[in-house]
Here is the input.
Amino acid sequence: GRVVDAFVVGYDIDDMTPVVELFCSSESDMFVRVDRVLLEAGVAKPADLSKVMQVLPKPIFVDGLGVPLPLHAKMSTAASV
Here is the structure.
């Protein structure tokens, strides 16, 4: 198995949906973006960068229930990330 690192890099200015980038390490210990795979599979949508309030990248930690810790307390849309 691989560990996927998720980082919040901004929020949609209309509905505050988090904008994330996903990475995992390759066999040569290089970080590879994996959110492109989700976009190509149709399970994620690209962000409209003109409507993104950018923030410094913040890691997302997942609790034992699979809920992103920094997001579930503030927004109900975190499950759609």
Observations:
- Residues 4-73 form one domain.
- The longest strand covers residues 4-12.
- Confidence is low (pLDDT under 50) at residues 69-81.
- The chain is about 15% helix and 35% strand.
